[in-house]
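Homework help board

Subject: predicted structure for assignment chain

Our instructor gave us this sequence and asked us to write out the predicted structure in token form, then describe one feature. I got the tokens but I'm not sure how to describe them. Can anyone check?
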Amino acid sequence: MIVVPDDFPSVFAGTPAEERARKLGDVRVFTERGADDERELVRRVGSAQAAINIRAHARFGDGVFTACPALKLVSVWGTGTDNIDLHAAGMRGVTVCNTPGINAFAVAEHALTLMLAVARKIPLLDTETRQGRWPREMLTQLVGKTLGVFGMGAIGARVATLGRGIGMTVLGWSAQGDEARIRAVGARPATKDEILRTADVVSLHVRLTPETRGFLGKKELALMKRTAILVNTGRGALVDRDALVAALKEQRLLGAGLDVFHQEPLPADDPIAALPNVVCSPHNAGQTPEVIRDGLLAAVENVENFLRGKPTNLVVAPVR
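My token output:
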């Protein structure tokens, strides 16, 4: 059996991907929230052999793998696997795979949009113009400025390309130290400190791991220019929340464009929501018809290949 325990808000039910999955056997799709509770997630997974993970709020920890011994595969829609205990998966004989690169163009476009929206103060200007005012804010021009990209996977590489396309100089940083990949998109390799000190825009595209949690903290944010913009379409926990709020409140940064947060959905009373120099979007950078269609089909294809004994897009294989 295949289970989709976390299709909320629903994107899988009634799609060609679901139709394709049903050709592989019984499929159970849960379209109501609740998979963020471990006991409920265990109940939903039950005796399924494969789970297609849609949302990051469903957390596959050791308790889930222990309670669901029939589970042998978790196929993630998207790239991020920070909601899965990868070590526990491997030790419990569970394969984890994802669908890398499919959302790269959409997320990169969103990162560019956030960057421009902050630089041009679009939300503020839109609000004031609609209210009958005619604001004359000083805006930020990005041509000739420096863009620093952390993470040179498919998304980061595309952001670098788009940055160059609007006339920015691009500095790149790769967790693997892959300077050839950085140069291939017309960027110059740089250290973390160099990027933070010199970039006018910093865009985060590194995977959230124990090593990258708090990738930017108080010390790192203090290195950035007061005129700099931070864009985060990766994961909220890449940035120390309190340090970010303080830097934005005290105008030690020009602003931030955020698609991800420490708590999602973002509570209405969260301090970030009250900051006028922040542009927010609800973790939907990859929410396009093309990404949804292709990503869900790729997640099902991972299941097909696993059942054939030829797993694809491996993140973790069982420890033998």
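Reply (TA_rk): Your tokens look well-formed. For the description, you could write something like this. The chain has two domains: 2-102+288-316, 104-280. That's the kind of observation they're looking for.
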